[in-house]
From TrEMBL:
InterPro entries, sorted: ARM-type_fold, Cohesin_Scc3/SA, HEAT_SCC3-SA, SCD, STAG
Name of the protein in its database record: Cohesin subunit SA
Disordered: annotated segments: 1-38, 1039-1061
The organism of origin for this protein: Sparus aurata
Keyword annotations from UniProtKB, A to Z: Cell cycle, Cell division, Chromosome, Chromosome partition, Nucleus
Compositional bias per record (Low complexity), positions renumbered to this chain: 25-35
One Pfam family from the record: SCD
Domain SCD: 278-363
């Protein structure tokens, strides 16, 4: 009874913690070192309140507690027990009764956790020998969170102070009561029992306390080991003395201090905590507990390696590197860094390294960036301490991370590259002694540059010098900032040049990248993770480097330009050579290279651009004249025609006969190559080439190869026309003419969508999408006060054809497209085909995003989001995001339309009983698609209207035009409510009530028997609207049998269970929704029986 009253008083005191906390925080430390009167004031506070006072006050109060424990250990231990209960967030009452034996079966049968729903109380009874403790607290508690998981600074502060309390408690007791076989036994028993509780607050708090207790015991064991070692040294010193100098009393006193009993007792305590807490909690369902266990395990192995650093403990670290939570994996990697960083511990890590090396290497690809970075740092540490652990294949894989898009990971990989390949010393030579210091430095730098260039050239998959330089900037800045050596290598005499042409080109890129990095900083496009704000020191380094490189390049840059770049005088010599090459060669690669070359030479900033433009215009005019004449002749002669040239390989020879369509292809390909880079509107290629699209090849029209190039050429021509509208559209007649060309291109392209050739269909689809997107963009940016493009809307027939093309030719499996089944052989061809299909889908999605097509037409695309997530998930998700920015309500309505169309197709197939159609998805797939759609609504306040609209629209879809009859007691689409329930978690509480009222409005007219199986979807959906408790979904709400043992549920929840207040509303809820376990099985059978497909 005395203990019970003490706990009640402690409970009353804990209710005023908030008022005392501020006062204690201001004056706690001052009290600890003040007068006896103030010390007495500190003694008056509870152990829970002392956490607010700082470490010095904590030591004073714990010393006072130890004195009280010596006088009355039972009462003081109950104070300590109450402390851990309060730290778990429980403001209940603790009662105790004595226990005579741990082995009493009747006693062990009383260890329960249960709820009293009538009284509104929860009980936990457990054994903390020699007591049986009972904790009682109200179910309707004021706070959902316990101190350790509270957000903000308070939660972090409490975590730190709580850990300090445990360490200070052990440190202050280590020379006295810790070895009395009573305090630690009771404390370990308490923490072990509470850490095994299903209640999250008890389990989390006491697991943290237990592992911190073990860490503190490790410190005690270390101090005992040091004391024993020092005593042994003193004993040896005494024994080494002569008989006259030796003190027998002092030797006996020293020998008495050399005892292993205390250290063995401490190690026994550590073993009990490890087996009772760690082995059960390192796989806990709560990731925070797993992280705590792994973090402390690494600390134990590093600090007390003689006991913990062996394969029996290291295996847990290796296993948990496979944990699904990034923070747990991170704690494992950080713990291993501490172990591999100590050379004395490396011999004990050999077996672990050989067993888990592959896992560590694979973790560099971790989806969490911090885990990947720390793993790379761990491997860098391993490579420095052990040369033979990582194989050349391992290094080849790891060094490729210098091209990573994450700068921290790339910089760490750069450190590995620099230490492995670049930080080498040149071999000694006979002439090295004769070199001065500057020449020796240049030779060292040249060797490093040679190794760097060789590494870059061997990296066949990556051609990003800028990324490579950025990765090496932090560790190899001295090499990359050695601009005098870099430029001197480039300015070497060709006769003495030791670098190849390819290496010189790469070295120029390295020089340019290093200059940019030194002058602008590490911010690179496409690489994230860099510091956005530079410190004052970094800014000073940037200014100094800019000054140095400017001073050097002012004198060297003219020499580099003279050697490397071509002067404008040579342009006049190069152009005739280009023209002669084009007259002799017609290979596509040559034509594309020529188009790009003329594009570079015709730039405004290029010297001799006027000469290059004149030569280009002359060349284009000559080719257009030949093509015009050829098209005129082809109207008279179909099939073959006498020509003055023929093509053999790449050479043009005279006096032969060739098919006219091959000549078409040559000239059209030339036009397509040049019009992609140059504006050829002056030659009116659209009018010249568009007639080729009007006749099928079977009727004497163009071949598929020609049609594909014609479509591409006309597409580029239309894009140039739209892009230069501000200069060319000077009257309404020209604007009307442009719209007629646009309509003609879309009509001809529409006819090509049904062409027999796959490439022609794809090119027609891409051309139509690109032109319509460019036209829409010009309409948005055009000044309405001047002449501009006129509005053109694609016909409904064309819109349906585009949508049908997407469904038939894009969303297909590897063997679904009969047209491509013979072509897609091999992995490389499959990847190329996937890349083409991604481009096609992106082109179609642009039409929806830019408003060319109605947003509802995206429903057919969205329905493949889950099925083709790996191939097209990023494109579809970005389309959702863009359409939501345009009109979030209409975008949400499109998602609803998508789900409804899928559901209707499924119902029709089930009713028809025919063979499964590949375009029909199963009920489970539709439900999973709805779940993924719901996840895209992040902020419930931002998308509040959207989610409510989804529920209202879906309820109307289920109950629209439904008339209840004996033959049709339920709506035909009632099971759609199960899919709709996936969006219930995104509703705010007021909106849940609104939607529930709207649902009751539609169901009020019908007779509903909730015990019948056919109404189970309605029960499921209503339960999802009523399931407002944290972490409780609709399934758990429907199938719950209201047992108190629910490990995934917090005991300090704010929820009130039905039955606490027996009013009419609660009775109604219980009647409607408190289903038995058998009824919940009916729900599961309903889902999986009727929709097993």
């Amino acid at each position: 009874q005395l203990f019970h009253l003490r706990r009640k008083r402690a409970h009353k005191g804990s209710e005023n913690v908030k008022q005392k906390r501020a006062k204690a925080g201001r004056s706690g430390v001052r009290r600890a070192g003040g007068s006896p009167r103030k010390k007495r004031h500190v003694e008056a506070v509870t152990l829970f309140e002392v956490i607010t006072m700082g470490r010095s006050a904590m030591q004073v109060v714990i010393d006072d507690w130890i004195e009280a424990y010596v006088r009355d250990r039972d009462s003081s231990l109950l104070d300590l027990i109450s402390f851990f209960i309060q730290c778990s967030g429980c403001k209940g009452v603790v009662t105790a009764e004595m226990c005579q034996s741990k082995e009493d079966r009747d006693v062990m049968s009383k260890m329960v956790e249960e709820m009293d729903e009538v009284a509104g109380l929860q009980y936990k009874k457990f054994l903390a020998f020699p007591w049986i403790l009972t904790v009682t607290w109200p179910m309707d508690t004021d706070s959902v969170e316990y101190p350790l998981i509270q957000s903000g600074p308070y939660g972090r502060w409490f975590h730190s102070e709580f850990c300090d309390f445990v360490s200070v408690l052990v440190a202050q007791c280590q020379h006295s009561v810790i070895f009395d076989s009573y305090l630690m036994n009771t404390l370990i028993s308490l923490l072990t029992e509470l850490s095994n509780s299903y209640i999250r607050a008890f389990r989390h708090t006491c697991s943290l306390a237990a592992v911190k207790l073990l860490s503190s015991l490790v410190g005690v064991a270390l101090s005992l080991s040091v004391s024993i070692e020092n005593s042994q040294k003193l004993c040896e010193v005494q024994k080494s003395k002569t008989m006259r100098q030796r003190s027998t009393l002092q030797l006996e006193r020293i020998q008495k201090t050399i005892t292993e009993e205390k250290r063995a007792e401490i190690e026994s305590m550590m073993d009990i905590v490890f087996k009772g807490v760690f082995l059960k909690r390192y796989r806990d369902v709560l990731p925070e507990i797993r992280s705590i266990c792994m973090e402390e395990l690494g600390l134990w192995m590093k600090r007390y390696s003689s006991a913990f650093l062996n394969d029996s403990y290291l295996k847990y670290m290796g296993w948990m590197m496979h944990d699904k939570i990034p923070d747990v994996r991170l704690k494992c990697v950080l713990g291993l860094q501490g172990l591999y960083g100590d050379p004395l511990l490396l011999p004990k890590m050999d077996l672990f390294t050989s067993r888990f090396k592959d896992r560590m290497i694979s973790m560099t690809l971790d989806k969490d960036n911090e885990v990947a970075v720390q793993t790379m740092k761990l491997l860098v540490l391993i490579s420095r301490t052990s040369d033979d652990v990582l194989s050349p294949e391992d290094y080849k894989q790891l060094l490729q991370f210098v091209y990573s898009s994450q700068r921290p990971l790339a910089a760490t990989a750069g450190e590995l590259l620099y230490s492995r390949l670049l930080n080498t010393v040149a071999p000694a030579s006979d002439t090295q002694d004769e070199m001065n210091e500057e020449e020796a430095h240049k030779q060292q730098t040249f060797i490093k540059l040679k190794a760097l260039l060789q590494f870059y050239q061997e990296s066949e998959l990556h051609k990003h010098v800028v990324y490579l330089v950025d990765s090496l900037w932090d560790c190899g800045g001295a090499l990359l900032k050695d601009w005098p050596t870099l430029t001197s290598v480039l300015l070497q005499d060709p006769s003495s040049q030791s670098l190849t042409q390819a290496e010189q080109a790469v070295l120029v890129e390295v020089l340019v990248a290093s200059v940019r990095q030194a002058s602008e900083g590490p911010a690179l496009a496409g690489r994230s993770g860099a510091k956005k704000v530079m410190s004052a020191r970094e800014k000073k380094i940037l200014v100094d480097d800019s000054a140095k490189l400017t001073e050097h390049l002012l004198t060297v840059l003219p020499k580099l330009l003279t050697k490397v770049f071509i002067s404008h005088i040579r342009v006049h010599v190069c152009i005739p050579a280009f023209q002669s090459v084009l007259e002799l060669h017609s290979d596509p690669a040559v034509l594309e290279a020529a188009a790009r070359t003329y594009l570079s030479l015709c730039g405004e900033e290029t010297a001799g651009c006027s000469t290059a433009r004149a030569a280009r215009d002359s060349l284009v005019q000559r080719w257009v004249d030949h093509l015009t004449a050829l098209l005129g002749d082809s109207l008279k002669v179909r099939g073959t025609v006498s020509m003055s040239v023929y093509i053999s390989g790449n050479e043009v020879c005279a006096h032969s006969i060739l098919p006219v369509m091959y000549i078409y292809w040559l000239y059209v390909y030339f036009s397509s190559s040049f019009v992609s880079c140059h504006d050829l509107s002056g030659w009116n290629l659209f009018t010249l080439l568009s007639p080729l699209l009007s006749v099928e090849s079977s009727k004497g029209g163009a071949l598929p190869e020609v049609l594909s190039e014609v479509l591409q050429c006309l597409c580029y021509s239309m894009l140039w026309s739209l892009n230069t509208s501000s200069e060319t559209l000077t009257s309404r007649e020209k604007a009307v003419s442009q719209r007629l060309q646009l309509r003609l291109f879309c009509e001809r392209g529409h006819s090509c969508l049904s062409h027999s050739d796959h490439d022609v269909r794809q090119q027609a689809f891409l051309g139509i999408c690109d032109v319509l997107t460019a036209h829409s963009y010009q309409l948005h940016v055009w000044d309405p006060t001047s002449f501009g493009p006129l509005l053109y809307t694609p016909s409904p027939k064309l819109q349906r054809a585009l949508l049908n093309f997407v469904c038939v030719h894009i969303f297909v499996g590897p063997d679904c497209d009969s047209q491509c089944s013979g072509e897609t052989s091999g992995k490389g061809t499959e990847l190329e085909d996937l890349h083409k299909r991604r481009n096609l889908l992106a082109a179609y999605c642009k039409l929806i995003v830019h408003g060319v097509l109605e947003m509802s037409m995206a429903a057919e695309v969205f329905m493949y989001y889950r099925k083709y997530y790996n191939d097209f998930g990023d494109i579809i998700k970005e389309t959702m995001y863009r359409t939501r920015q345009t009109d979030k309500i209409e975008s949400a309505r499109t998602l609803v339309l998508c789900l409804q169309q899928l559901f209707v197709r499924l119902k029709r197939e089930q009713e028809s009983g025919g063979r499964a159609h590949p375009g029909v998805q199963t009920f489970t797939s539709i439900k999973e698609l709805a779940r993924r759609f719901a996840l895209t609504f992040g902020d419930p306040f931002k998308f509040r209207e959207c989610v409510v609209m989804i529920h209202r629209n879906s309820i109307e879809f289920v109950f629209q035009e439904f008339s209840q009859t004996p033959d049709t007691p339920t709506p035909p689409y009632l099971s759609y409510l199960t899919i709709l329930s996936e969006f219930s978690s995104k509703l705010l509480k007021p909106d849940k009530k609104t939607v529930l009222s709207y649902l009751q409005k539609h169901t009020a007219e019908h007779i509903i028997n909730l015990r019948e199986e056919c109404w189970q979807p309605l029960i499921y959906y209503r339960a999802s609207l009523l399931a407002v408790a944290e972490g409780e979904d609709a399934v758990s709400y429907v199938s719950s049998d209201r047992k108190p043992h629910m490990p995934n549920r917090s005991p300090f929840s704010k929820q009130k269970l039905e039955g606490t207040k027996p009013n009419k509303k609660v009775k109604h809820k219980m009647c409607m929704f408190s289903l038995s376990q058998s009824t919940s099985c009916i729900v599961c059978n309903f889902f999986w029986g009727h929709f097993r497909k």
